[in-house]
Design a protein that fits this description.
Strand order of the largest sheet: 2-1-3-5-6-4
Structural class: alpha/beta
Bound molecules: 2'-monophosphoadenosine-5'-diphosphate
Shape: globular
Number of strands: 12
Order of helices and strands: EHEHHEEHEEHEHEHEEEHEHH
Helix content: 25-40%
Length: about 280
């Protein structure tokens, strides 16, 4: 038996992580539930990794449509679910679980979609096939960004990371067109780039700033930081000051939530100014 459909249905979804209190996902999804007139709730659930399998298997009997997953559960879930979508397989992490009618679990990844949708929203005339992209960092966020850029047809992706073997691993995994550079080469790698994407924790509130001179970056390149607290990082300030167009990290956070909501509740929600403002106001200044 699955949860009843129709007007009596209380729509349930949530986000599992450990810790989980900081998550902005409840704000986003509960906003959409209200906006689209769905009775229900999206709740934060603290689940330590050792309880993940039992927690996921409990979703169907509890009537949950699914959950989002955050650190440190995104990779652990890969081994538990019954199916994975191509993005989760390619990125190596699942940020969304969809519970099917028969109780089987599908792991999906919406981060690459969120990143590319956010870029396209901020820069509608951007032609991603136009030139090389530089990606700073080689962690989980970089994997989603590289997957999204490859899917979108970016011809060359230069990955530069402090720990070079991690960048090399991504280059060999994501195949032709993805090239590893050392951290020392990060400024030189900007030459001729059409897009720069910052995926490390540098520049985030409470972290060291990113040390990067932008002199070699073409004036028409787009600069994107996936850090969203602060909303405008020192990198984005520096890029805007020299005339580059910039894309803030808040958009990725908002857009990655859309396909999950659609998969659970059948409505592809919009990112409105009202939602963006609410989310922005919830973030530390
Ligand atoms: P996420 O999943 O958010 O990407 P992660 O896997 O911990 O998190 O990756 C963090 C990224 O920030 C990595 O690329 C990391 O570089 P290393 O692979 O060398 O650790 C990068 N990073 C964190 N602190 C850094 C610093 N002080 N200087 C340069 N890069 C840093």
């Amino acid at each position: 038996m699955s949860a009843p459909a129709g007007p009596d249905r209380f729509h349930l979804a949530g986000v599992m992580g450990f810790p989980i209190a900081h998550s902005r996902s409840p704000l986003i999804h509960n906003h959409w539930m209200e906006e689209y007139g769905l009775k229900g709730a999206y709740v934060p659930v603290a689940v330590p990794p050792e309880n993940l399998e039992r927690a996921l298997r409990a979703l169907h009997p509890l009537g949950f449509a699914g959950v989002n997953l955050t650190v440190p559960l995104k990779t652990a879930a890969m081994r538990i679910v019954d199916r994975l979508d191509p993005a989760a397989l390619g990125i190596g992490a699942a940020n969304t679980i969809v519970v099917d009618q028969d109780g089987t679990l599908e792991g999906r990844n919406t981060d690459a979609f969120g990143f590319v949708a956010s870029l396209r929203e901020a820069q509608p005339e951007l032609d991603l096939s136009r030139g090389p992209a530089v990606v700073l960092g080689a962690g989980g966020a970089a994997r989603a960004v590289i997957y999204g850029l490859k899917e979108a047809g970016v011809p060359e992706i230069r990955v530069t990371n402090r720990t070079v073997p991690r960048a090399q691993e991504l280059a060999s995994e994501f195949g032709p067109g993805v090239v590893a550079h050392s951290w020392e080469e990060r400024e030189e790698s900007l030459r001729g780039a059409a897009l720069l994407v910052q995926t490390t924790s540098l520049g985030m509130q409470g972290h060291a700033p990113l040390d990067l001179r932008l002199d070699a970056l073409p004036a028409d390149a787009i600069v994107c930081d996936i850090v969203y607290a602060p909303r405008r990082t020192p990198l984005l300030h520096a890029a805007a000051a020299r005339g580059n167009r910039v894309v803030e990290g808040l958009g990725m956070l908002l857009h990655q939530a859309r396909p999950a909501f659609a998969a659970w509740f059948g409505v592809m929600p919009d990112v409105t100014l009202g939602l963006r403002t609410r989310l922005d106001e919830s973030l530390p200044r």
